[in-house]
Automatic annotation (TrEMBL):
Belongs to the binding-protein-dependent transport system permease family. Residues 65-277 form the ABC transmembrane type-1 domain. Keywords: Cell membrane, Membrane, Transmembrane, Transmembrane helix, Transport. It is a multi-pass membrane protein. It is found in: Cell membrane. It comes from Pseudothermotoga lettingae (strain ATCC BAA-301 / DSM 14385 / NBRC 107922 / TMO) (Thermotoga lettingae). InterPro entries: ABC_transporter_permease, MetI-like, MetI-like_sf. One of its GO terms (biological process) is transmembrane transport. This is Binding-protein-dependent transport systems inner membrane component. One of its GO terms (cellular component) is plasma membrane. The chain crosses the membrane at residues 12-36, 65-90, 102-122, 151-175, 227-246, 258-278.
């Protein structure tokens, strides 16, 4: 038995080394550096809890947390129900379904910067295709990226567009793993399509639902490239999500220690949201 355990450990060891070097070590480094004042040029100076005290008084940091939460509340329902609806329509194995799956999965395969740049052009106030269509229909152009509310909804739409294909495939996998005997039994009992979905299919997708929710929350809460390219956090600070605010603090203001302190708090908030999601799942 000991030889078997050793052999298994040998196979797992490369993954453990990789996680230790590229995941655990950076987290530990960020935690310790958060207690220092450092600008990348001069030597780091230990300041204790001063970075965290400053954070409590930094209204723009807490604004970025609130913006991230608002974006989460806007995007997660869309990235749950839209992929679920598509999966219900395309989960059967036929040629047309396979072609449509590939088309919906394509945005997820596109590099984030390229996809966001494309949408930035489409949503441009003066040169954007969407406003050109609105003008041709006799309607006023919309400042999609120049006003706070449309800009936030544009980011939510962009995240939904980019993630729908991946989450749809998760739902399709879950649907295909459900035995048809459950559906046939429900039909014999006189259940209609909605009743079969609500009382049979949806409960049997509970593990897939959790996977989709956690994946969606993780992608939205740590989104940087999409916001950076599409709005840059503007107009004003209306779309300044926390990862972008931390980036600006570190690499435009060169307050590395303070940026690391914000990263630690943001990591704890993300962990708390993940734990709440898991607790809700376990309670059901």
């Amino acid at each position: 038995m000991s030889a078997l355990v050793k052999s298994r450990f040998i196979f797992v060891l490369p993954a453990l080394i990789f996680l230790g070097i590229f995941v655990l070590a950076p987290i530990v480094s960020v935690f310790f550096t958060s207690f220092y004042s450092w600008d990348l040029l001069s030597p780091a100076r230990f300041t204790g809890l001063s970075n965290f005290k400053r954070m409590l008084e930094d209204k723009w940091f807490w604004n970025s947390i609130w913006v991230s939460i608002k974006l989460l509340l806007l995007t997660v329902p869309l990235t749950f129900f839209v992929p679920l609806a598509l999966a219900l329509a395309l989960h059967r194995e036929n040629t047309s379904s396979k072609i449509l799956r590939a088309l919906f999965y394509w945005p997820y395969m596109m590099p984030a910067v390229a996809g966001t740049t494309m949408w930035k052009w489409l949503l441009s106030y003066d040169l954007g295709l969407l406003n050109h269509i609105l003008k041709s229909l006799g309607m006023k152009p919309v400042a999609w990226l120049l006003k706070p509310t449309p800009a936030l909804f544009s980011i939510a739409f962009l995240r939904t567009w980019g993630m729908t294909g991946l989450l749809m495939m998760m739902f399709i996998t879950g649907l295909q793993n459900i035995s048809q005997e459950y559906h046939e039994a429900a039909k014999i009992d006189g259940a209609n399509r909605w009743q079969i979905f609500w009382y049979v299919t949806f409960p049997l997708l509970k593990n897939t639902n959790l996977l989709v929710l956690t994946t969606s929350i993780a992608h939205v809460f740590r989104d940087f490239a999409g916001v950076y390219v599409l709005t840059g956090g503007g107009p004003g600070y209306s779309t300044m999500v926390t990862p972008l605010y931390i980036y600006n603090t570190a690499f435009t203001q060169f307050r590395i220690g303070y940026a690391y302190a914000m990263s630690v708090v943001f990591l704890l908030i993300s962990f708390a949201i993940a734990m709440v999601t898991l607790r809700v799942r376990e309670s059901k």
